[in-house]
Amino acid sequence: MANKSPHDNHSAKTSGKAVKVKRNERKEKQRAATEMERLMHPRRARS
User: Fold this and answer.
1) Does residue 43 have a pLDDT over 90?
2) In a domain, 8, yes or no
3) Domains contained in the chain, number
4) Side-chain half-sphere CA neighbours of 41 within 13 A
5) 3 within domain boundaries
6) How far is CA 6 from CA 1, 9, 10, 11, 14, in A?
7) Half-sphere exposure of 33 (CA within 13 A, CB side)
8) Position 1 in a domain
9) DSSP 15-45
10) Domain containing residue 34
11) What are the pLDDT digits (tens) for 2-40?
């Protein structure tokens, strides 16, 4: 049976980008998408 200890899962592979950079890019992409959505489908003002 394989050893499924969570401590064995930490490998030394380093990602190309830092976590903060990735998070920043993801948020930027999401922000651009929501901005585009707002431009394409403006909300009607309630009267």
Assistant:
1) no
2) no
3) 1
4) 3
5) no
6) 15, 5, 8, 11, 18
7) 6
8) no
9) -SS-HHHHHHHHHHHHHHHHHHHHHHSPPPP
10) 14-46
11) 667 666 666 666 667 788 999 999 999 999 999 999 898
